[in-house]
Amino acid sequence: MDITNLEKIANNLVAPGKGILAADESNGTMSKRLEAVGIEPSEENRRKYRVNLFASDNYEKAISGIILYDETIRQKMDDGTDIPDAMINRGVYPGIKVDTGTKEFEGRDDEKITEGLDDLDIRCKEYFEIGARFAKWRAVISIGEDSPTDSCIRANAQSLAKYARICQEQGLVPIIEPEVLMDGLHSAEKCMEVTSKVLRMTFEECEKNGVHLPGTLLKPNMIISGKMNKEKISRDQVAEMTVRCLSENVPSEIPGIVFLSGGQSDEDATAHLDIMNKMDKKHPWELSYSYGRALQASALKQWATGTPESSQLAFLKRAEMNHKARYGKWGMELE
Ligand code: 13P
């Protein structure tokens, strides 16, 4: 394991003012998003929309790395350059989603386990050769009447840790993403309780598997009440509870925490990160973003209703707002 290089990549991914663009929607998810804005969901249309984003001017000011899906990492920019090479030329790390999706956990319809450990070492080796320097694996935990069970959390934690170890042996920095979903009626306190348990078990398994934490990034959810819960907590409370949860459960060796947006509005995702970075409370890790929807939703809308340029401008606007939030220097007036 090349520890020095892993640490360097992990630290560069969370360099000051920078975060990650998650553009690794599976073909199924990306197709649904295109269809939702009235665009035919073909391979070429997925490519066109994405390479337009990747051709935006100066996005590298705010974006250190982009997570790609298997289809995209093999595609080309409009000028014929391989997509990963076009990123590397701009000092941006290509990343790759390496899990292969989820299936029902032990036959239950309310819990899922993420798959993709088979041949993972071989796939990582190939992705490294194509130019990838980091990877992502997403575990999904939902809060319901009888879920999550400890055994489902444990099984997902074990897979996350095994994935992380395999990636590191192949030179890829693993992003560990255990996402506690926002769907449901639960309170923010319940989200905190479940997220704490998920993080605890995940890092226990990382230790058992010899994962090198200084060469690893964590991609968690923020602490938020369920979407269907009418009692919303304030932005300040989200920030305070999230930092408290992470402080209690994330080892200090982790260089960076890159949040997912998980269905939050663009502005909420930016505001929450901004407040966390404004707080006096000191923490050992960088607090950054690895947003999918919160960086892309407005760009996708413009792609469908505006022009390629207006789509780029919408993306650059969200990138700039989150860049400011990295320093705790965002404000409503900038919107
Ligand atoms: P969202 O920010 O849209 O939640 O996407 C992040 C991601 O990569 C989910 O796996």
Q: Percent of residues in helical segments?
A: 40-55%
CATH superfamily: Aldolase class I
Order of helices and strands: HEHHEHHEEEHEHEHEHEHEHH
Q: Biggest sheet, in brief?
A: 8 strands, parallel, barrel
Our estimate of the beta-strand percent is 5-15%
Overall geometric form: globular
Radius of gyration: 19 Å
Average pLDDT works out at: 97
Ligand set: 1,3-dihydroxyacetonephosphate
User: Structural class given helices, strands, pairing?
Assistant: alpha/beta
Count of structural domains: 1
What report would you give on this structure?
It is globular, with a radius of gyration of 19 Å. The protein has twelve helices and ten strands. It has 335 residues and is an alpha/beta fold. The chain has one domain: Aldolase class I (TIM Barrel, Alpha-Beta Barrel). β8 (217-218), α9 (235-249) and β9 form a beta-alpha-beta unit. The termini are far apart. Bound molecules: 1,3-dihydroxyacetonephosphate. Residues 22, 138, 177, 260-262, 291-294 line the site of 1,3-dihydroxyacetonephosphate.
Short description:
The chain has 335 residues and is an alpha/beta fold. It is built from twelve helices and ten strands.
